[in-house]
Design a protein that fits this description.
single chain, alpha/beta, five-stranded parallel beta sheet, 11 helices
Amino acid sequence: MTLTLTVPPRADADRLTGLPVAIIGAGPVGLAAAAHLLEQGLDVIVYEAGPTVGTSVRAWGHTRLFSPWQYVIDPAAQRLLEGTGWEAPRASSLPTGHDLVDTYLAPLAATPQLAPVIQYGTRVEAVSRQGMDRTRSTGRADTPFLLRLHTVDGARDVTARAVVDTSGTYTSPNPLTAAGLAPAADLGDRVAHALPDVLGADRARFAGRRVLVVGAGHSAVNTLIKLASLAKTAPGTDVLWAVRNAGTARLGADAADGLAARGQLGSTVHGLVESGQVQQIALFEIDDVRPDGDQVTVTGRRAGEPFRVTVDVIVNATGFRPDLDMLREIRLGLDDIVEAPRALAPLIDPNLHSCGSVPPHGVAELAHPEPNFFIAGMKSYGRAPTFLLLTGYEQVRSIAAELAGDHQAARQLELVLPETGVCSTDIGGTSCCTTPAAIATPAAEDAACCATPEPAADSTSCCTN
């Protein structure tokens, strides 16, 4: 008996034809990724969990960047904007987070090229391969990605030919304890997220209260400077600062810093500590944080001895970590320490890294065992806090070239960033947002998103994407 096969066998590669590249997150790096991919002639779709573009940036929008406009605009994005008659702001001026959204991200998202491909209110809950969990290998590279989306209308699944995760880390703060574990008790509103609007919308939460800021980076310093300013007009405001290290040498003022506002941070906060406006609690390793009536008590060890302090509210400025839950079915190649791609991790590990030494990097350093899957932007740095927007822009330029098949361009890298001498990290965990003066290997990178508040130089930690 002879059987005739009337339906031709399916070519797995054909399953990718016509599918877009899915970008997770409509922040600065996500929109830059979309702009670069569109320039390469690739279809894209951008999924943003928030109701508008740059939702995470809006959360700290009151904070002024210590990077001027010349370091926060992506070249491909600028080319899209200029096609609409948009004019770039003065290159040397310092935007706030709100300026970044209103003047740059919102107009970019409204361009004819990007507006149709951004879906707001759409959270990516999981990423996998169509019909394949992470254990299956045969034909994996030719199988579409499957993204499970959640919207107000419920859950639905969509497919993509490649995925670029630029969802950032702002919504995943590190826990307060030195062990990296969440406090045992529910602290409710006794703990504030990094970069609260101390002098504006959140003033009532801090005025006349005893406040403990935990963290040793620019987010912490930004908040401390604002709290000290608040204390001058709100009697009873008491400002404490907990750091795990012996002091704040990493935040020393540096006249060589190409970002002048950033260079002022160290001298400003040192002056506040020396004058007694900020009480620094150094060498404090927090073991637990528990409610204590209307207050909260923080316990741990200071210089090895038991120590505790009771305050009204805590500002958690301990940095951020990537949320990897949605990537359980993706084959990730992450470093065991900083949770960054393995080839990138040694370049940014805060246990080893001097903030002025991050070389340019792209697909070669960002690759995972999962073909055509990339994490870019702040999330690509895992738990390391040294990210700059320009770094993310070059990452996605390289990724776009790779996905378009131009492997040579994807590996030609160039990075020219402001000179910095701020912060060396001999003990893990600064949040300095710095990079080398000018490092180049043939190609193009850009950006910095860190910040300073209004008149002077209290500035935010790293950037968000």
